[in-house]
């Protein structure tokens, strides 16, 4: 049997690997090292060349059975190859799940949280790869920024070390004024030129002060043509250029109106943030716009988010109002609120420990359960579904050993993990009919929100409205016929854990929590709600999907109807912003606008 040592020395892949590193080896050389020895009639090099040739681009999808079909390959070798492939895929998936993609200046702002109240000037660099994924955040200088003192080397040396494809710079102005100074302009010019020469473009330079920010992005785009020295067309050759795939674009999403910075959660490594989920109509990306308006138009101590969805609006409200109330009739949302916003006791080490143990569970060691029998091979891979079902059962069995907060924290972590690996476009009305590539399962703890006085409800909003009182009430109901309880039924089933009988292709339970706001009587329900609410200000979100071609996306209430209903309560202003929502995939929302109505309730 031909082993590696039988190959002429000059051709031995192991030696070449040690001398020159893995990049000097072909794919078949690398496979030869994994296999170690050949089979009867073929040395290891011929064997690996044959395998690479046979499977070509499909190599990463080879199964053990495919390999066993090759004459001379036994179970041991087939497993060696398959395990190596799975290992690579697993690490790659982990890396991707931690990936932070930066698409616009709003995304950059989440890295400025710690800079805004600094007394000294800082220059911070974000290094991105060709997919606009963050490679590293680095403080480049502390103290007064001076063109003469700052050498481009300090910025671009780490960039070359990291093989970065582009750079974003952040600078703080402790004075509170975010407009660029003359010195800032000179520095930007110098750094941008250096970046162009090196083929590592500077895509944005953002100045932040305590409450504002200024982005050079647009200016830099215009200047580009005027620069004298441009290497490689100003762009590194990347996988995107090789495969002629369009690089993710970095665009400004901020509107021309000056939006104030309020609160963007820090990215806490290996933790789940409240907004890290896919939820139709969530307001995460509109939060600064919404609160810029609320803070300008409203005042008071208490805030009620009565169609709270993900809860991202409440999360910001907790930083601005003394008392916050949030409500949604979905079981999964309620569990998530109790986990993130609750003020009951919990033991961090205990929760982290339990999650760590959950991450050491292997599907092969588990029997099928309700969740895997229902959703395995459909919304999730069989393996992930088995693990999810097992963990959910285990949380329920251990309920008596957990505080309420710990119980909801574990459920919330599981819900976010399930959402992340689900084989869907972001809701559970349908799943992809494709082979499962995402067989991964890795649960992270949630990062709870520090709150003062919080009230959490799970009620029909129109019933709740008769019982509550708040200075500002934020109203963000569904506006089309798509029922949230049906879209997120898998998360509902996973939360309630009453293991219901499921129906149809999408495996939905009997219907529950069907909203009147998705029906034809929606405008009457809104009128009733507005009449019953005891508030100083009503703030209503609305988006113009009314003209959508898809019937289910068409709005049940028109803009004019909302305005008319609100005017019965007091003087009403309307604000608008161009915005493209996360939608379910088959609706084309061109010319999409987001509206915010603010009604100052008149005293009766
Ligand atoms: C447009 S979403 C709200 C999105 C939310 N503002 C966010 O940023 O994530 C509407 C929410 O209202 C809830 N909902 C619909 N009808 C309801 C009702 N009658 N009572 C309580 N909640 C309701 C849905 O479950 C859904 O989460």
Quick structural summary:
Helices cover 36% and strands 14% of the residues. It has 604 residues and is α/β, with parallel strands linked by helices. Among the domains are: 94 residues, Orthogonal Bundle (DNA polymerase, domain 1); 138 residues, Cytidine Deaminase, domain 2 (3-Layer(aba) Sandwich), CATH 3.40.140.
Give a written overview of the molecule.
The chain has 604 residues and is of the alpha/beta class. 36% of the residues lie in helices and 14% in strands. Among the domains are: 4-97, DNA polymerase, domain 1, CATH 1.10.150; 105-242, Cytidine Deaminase, domain 2 (3-Layer(aba) Sandwich), CATH 3.40.140.10. It is built from 22 helices and twelve strands. The strands form two sheets. It has a seven-stranded mixed β-sheet, with helices on both faces. Helix 2 (27-35) packs across helix 3 (44-55). The radius of gyration is 28 Å and the shape is globular. The relative contact order is 0.08. It binds S-adenosylmethionine. S-adenosylmethionine binds at residues 279, 281-283, 307-310, 312-313, 328-330, 333, 460-461, 476-478, 484, 515, 517.
């Amino acid at each position: 049997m031909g082993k590696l040592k039988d190959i002429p020395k000059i051709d031995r892949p192991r030696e070449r690997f040690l001398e020159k590193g893995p990049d000097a080896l072909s794919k078949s050389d690398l496979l030869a090292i994994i296999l170690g020895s050949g089979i009867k009639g073929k040395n290891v090099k011929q064997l690996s060349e044959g395998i690479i040739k046979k499977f070509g681009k499909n190599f990463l999808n080879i199964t053990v059975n495919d390999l066993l079909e090759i004459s001379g390959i036994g179970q041991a070798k087939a497993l060696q190859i398959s395990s190596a492939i799975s290992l690579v895929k697993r690490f790659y998936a982990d890396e991707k799940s931690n990936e932070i993609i930066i698409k616009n200046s709003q995304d950059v702002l989440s890295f400025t949280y710690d800079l805004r109240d600094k007394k000294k000037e800082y220059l911070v660099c974000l290094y991105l790869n060709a997919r606009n994924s963050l490679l590293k955040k680095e403080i480049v200088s502390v103290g007064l920024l001076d063109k003469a003192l700052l050498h481009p080397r300090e910025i671009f040396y780490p960039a070359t070390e990291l093989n970065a494809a582009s750079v974003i710079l952040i600078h703080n102005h402790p004075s509170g004024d975010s407009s660029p100074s003359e010195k800032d302009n000179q520095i930007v010019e110098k750094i941008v030129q250096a970046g162009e020469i090196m083929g590592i473009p500077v895509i944005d330079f953002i100045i932040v002060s305590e409450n504002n920010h200024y982005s050079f992005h647009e200016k830099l785009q215009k200047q580009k043509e005027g620069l004298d020295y441009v290497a490689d067309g100003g762009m590194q050759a990347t996988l995107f250029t090789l495969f002629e795939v369009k690089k993710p674009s970095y665009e400004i999403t901020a509107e021309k109106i000056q939006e104030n910075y309020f609160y963007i959660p820090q990215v806490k490594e290996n933790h789940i943030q409240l907004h890290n989920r896919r939820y139709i109509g969530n307001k995460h990306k509109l939060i600064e716009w919404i609160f810029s308006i609320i803070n300008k138009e409203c005042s008071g101590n208490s805030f009620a988010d009565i169609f709270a969805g993900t809860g991202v609006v409440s999360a910001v409200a907790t930083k601005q109002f003394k008392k916050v109330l949030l409500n949604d009739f979905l079981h999964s949302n309620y569990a998530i609120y109790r986990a993130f916003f609750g003020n009951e006791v919990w033991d961090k080490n205990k929760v982290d420990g339990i999650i760590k143990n959950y991450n050491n569970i292997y599907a092969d060691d588990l029997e099928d359960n309700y969740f895997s029998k229902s959703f395995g091979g459909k919304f999730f891979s069989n393996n992930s579904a088995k693990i999810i079902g097992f963990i959910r059962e285990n949380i329920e069995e251990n309920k008596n050993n957990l505080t309420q907060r710990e119980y909801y924290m574990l459920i919330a972590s599981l819900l976010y993990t399930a959402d992340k690996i689900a084989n869907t476009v972001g809701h559970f009305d349908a799943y992809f009919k494709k082979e499962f590539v995402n067989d991964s399962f890795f649960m992270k703890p949630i990062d709870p929100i520090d709150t003062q006085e919080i009230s959490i409800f799970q009620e029909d909003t129109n019933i709740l409205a008769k019982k509550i009182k708040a200075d500002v009430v934020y109203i963000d109901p569904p506006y089309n016929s798509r029922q949230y309880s049906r879209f997120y039924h898998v998360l509902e089933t996973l939360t309630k854990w009453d293991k219901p009988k499921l129906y149809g292709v999408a495996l939905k339970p009997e219907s529950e929590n069907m909203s009147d706001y998705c029906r034809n009587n929606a405008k009457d329900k809104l009128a009733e709600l507005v009449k019953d609410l005891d508030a100083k200000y009503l703030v209503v979100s609305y988006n113009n999907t009314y003209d959508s071609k898809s019937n289910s996306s068409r709005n049940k209430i028109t803009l004019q109807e909302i305005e008319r209903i609100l005017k019965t309560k007091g003087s009403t202003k309307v604000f608008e912003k161009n915005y493209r929502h996360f939608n379910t995939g088959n609706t084309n929302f061109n010319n999409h606008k987001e509206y915010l109505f603010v009604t100052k309730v008149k005293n009766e």
